[in-house]
Amino acid sequence: MGPVNNGRFRMKSLQVLAFLAATVGLGPSAVAQHNLLTDEERSDGWLLLFDGKTTGGWHSYGQDAVLGWDVEDGELVALGLAADDEGDIVTDELFSSFELSLEWKISPQGNSGILFAVVEDTALYEAIYHTGPEYQLIDGDGWPDPLEEWQKTGSNYAMHNATSRPTRPVGEWNHSRILVNGPHVEHWLNGKKIVEYELWTDEWHRLAHEGKWKDYPDYAMARIGRIGLQDHGVETRFRNVKIRHLRPAPSQETALFNGENLDGWKIHGTEKWYVEDGELICESGPDEGYGYLVTERDFKDFELELEFLQEAQGNSGVFFRSSIEGTKISGWQAEVAAPGNLNGDITGGIYESYGRGWLQKMPKDKEAILKIEGWNHMRVLVRGDRVDTWLNEVHMAGLNDSTVGEADGKIALQIHDGGGIKVRWRNLYIRAL
What we know:
Helix content: under 10%
CATH superfamily of the largest domain: Exo-inulinase, domain 1
CATH class of the largest domain: Mainly Beta
Shape: elongated
């Protein structure tokens, strides 16, 4: 559970003894049947996130080691010793689209959660729930205070209520499954789907920014992140924690750049566009003017992802829903600013060309997200009136704009005027929504 108004509760001594007694008697044979993968699961891409023996693959949020957790009888145990949010653990690995399966057993008056898309940057976010959506776990029957529906087990905490709760009694194992495929999310409990929602729709933004998360602008905005398990001050046990990566079906995802030539694109201007070692390169020419590489197709609602590496000074960008005549482009741009440029703190911001100018700049506290050397990953999500951008999986800008919503048009990469520009691009993919 994220920030709550009900306070924090710890088990009484008798409750501790009763809960531990329920787990006594698990010998080696009982442990051995858990935390394993079948041959079929391996062939389907499943991976163990917990091997039943160590806390390998996990660390406490913002720490190098695991604190306040132990492994007992093949179970990953939150000991309930943490103060505030110090005991939450996250995976070493990052996940984007995935299917997560695990079993959990909560203690009397227990409270915990399973989070995903957690951004681990303690300079920006103090706790995992500042960014990660949460599959809520709680002792709904034993909790000492009344609970809202969005606080109960299986709910998307403070966002979407579970339609049913086939929860087993405290002290018994429950099975949960979380499916995240792009913006589509499902919560399952003991074999039944209980929550289904789409991230980043107008309704989702309304729920997030008018409710519990109005003071957390980056809540659930990361497109990739860590899986998190919460220690809310009461012992909770997990086992059979497994995951598999998912990727949108090929029919849903299109490569905008084939790695060989500029098929599907049109050059505007005299600046240089060419392919080298499977990478798309833009470079200032002798005219040092504006240049654009523009898709032949129009795109309305989409999710675009790409990588860029800036080799020289200059200024570039990713245009969308745009039209172009010569080198005069009208539309909107997700900024790509060059290292050392005075605009180097605005990569990921949203700019309207030949119109209102800057609609939203990137916040100053995120200027270090841009990698001055090496590849950067950018995502642009455009749906209806809504535009969101991410840089290296951190949300940079987001806005609703009716003018953007009315438009349609091309995707374009830019060479700014002024000369001295060289940018490499790769892994350009788009998914129509």
